[in-house]
Amino acid sequence: MISKLSGWGVFLSIGALSLIGARGEEPKTGDAPDAALRPWLESMVINHRFSREEIASATGLPLEEVGRRLDALGLGAIPETPPPHRAPGGGILALPYPGGRHPRIGFLDGAVDPWRETKASIFLPWAGAGYVVVDLPEALWSNLGLTFLAHKHIPTVWEKQGVVVPHADWRRRAAGVLENEFRLPNGLEIRARIAPRRDVVDMDIRLRNRGSERLTALRSQICVLLKGAPAFNDATNDNKVIEGNTIAVKARDANRWVATAWESARPWGNPPCPCMHSDPSFPDLDPGAETTVRGRLFFYEGEDIRAEIARRSQAKTLRGDPLDAVLIESKKIWDAAPHNAFTSLVRREKEWLCTFREGEQHVSADGAVRVIASTDGATWTSAARITHPAGDLRDPKLTVAPDGRLYLCAAVALRPGAPHKHQTLVWFSRDGRDWGQPTEVGDPDVWLWRVSWHGTTALGVGYPTDHVGPVLLYRSADGLRFERILDRLYERGEPNESSIEFLGDATAVCLLRRDGTDGDGQVGLARPPYTEWSWKSVGARIGGPQILRLPDGRFVAGARLYDGAVRTSIAWIEPETGKFEEAVALPSGGDTSYPGLVLADDVLWVSYYSSHEGKTSIYLARVRLPQGAGALDR
Known about the structure:
By secondary structure, the protein is mostly beta strands. The strands form 8 sheets. The chain has an 8-stranded antiparallel β-sheet with strand order 5-6-7-8-15-12-11-10. The model is unreliable at about 5-30 and about 630-634 (pLDDT under 50).
């Protein structure tokens, strides 16, 4: 029988809720409240069309309890409408396979008690066509012998020794990625990922040798099981085509194809199951080394699958796109002052503009705002230097106002003897060179740290500088006259710096720094008029945050991270859940933070400051982000 559910983490990333404990224990039916059970049962009933007996097998619940829970959740009857064949955003739908139903038709004695934890259902892009199950990985061999197997058939080297390999559920990651990871007794880590796109599914496997012995002859077996796709599941290889590393299977009654290809792979089909494989090999791994291979599942409708494979091979789109953010480069772009820090970045028309503070030290009375400009991001020249007679100018932030003018917001730290400590100032400029005189905005001793625009509405979060207290929310229609709309936007844990982005429906998303004992950052959501907010912890302490919404709806954040070595990093963030996942650490350290983020030409450009090379200087990084779940197939 296929493995039962051992944790709700497959859907909810909260493994503490489970129906059964360690493998083999009796079901604990009271441990899963209906609210946590709903997404799991919806997948079984709506997407996979499980019978109640199959649900009982998958969950370990008694049949009577299955019926009670289904009825309570309004899932008592299998829907008459066909299952959804697309994800809500229009991309390929990928779900963890529930277990309880064997994914093979035949050769069942070759896959006894198959693990559900390695299997994911990929729903075909044609209505009513069903799904295939990707077993990632089904097996792995090395010089030790059969090193991993996701069912019982041939004993692995560990089974021969009486050693149990712990199971691990799929986890949902940013950008719709499913990820699981297994650590074998010899220290070999196997991480598998599945990333549904608009019309393809990208996959990868990373092997990392944390053991003390060199591993050789590494090869895996990756199975695409066809039982759930009725038009493709004939027990024959006559419906399959092999070209290079690619294998494709044709529908019985239409010119539709499902194909898979991996790097350094051997393709083959197994009619009794039925299934198809493109099984990659890996280079040898010394202790401490790692390697990653990539693959892709794609779909085609047409007469000539061989020509389509050749087209994709020539375009280099067979193996799949990288699933990680990749640092393209990071370089120093300015270090003229003794201390250069606190950046902001914009691109207007064909010109880059970066602003930052320069002075003698991190905190010094001579702080000035520098604006530098570039047409290519490589060569930078000074566009302006702004000072204020009353004190130290700090933390400048650039945006583009609704009328196309540049908008600069900063605070002046007033000299001793002044009636207040800080005053927020704003400037407008048409060319980035002439900024004129500043305008005081907001309230004295409330630092309006960043202003964000949505149409003609500007929002900004201010934090008090003369005492520790709650942050305030301000709104403006022109960037000059701000009204205070909330006196207590957030008050726990010494909140201060922030960044606001907007959804298409004008919902505001706020990423907020906190410095108290309970100092995890917070992400908040509010719809207009922005007087009622819901907040989630991001589970990490952050500094100098900026959040950016990508065109496909995903959010990235730039911030200083404090766990381990202090660094400036780019992270994925999900505002609805608070999930915060570091994507790439930038070359940085010491006095570092305050990134500025701009997406241009499908690359994330990041300004930031750092002292990792000695002098505190301004850097510009370029980061290539993985495609989102709605990205188009290339």
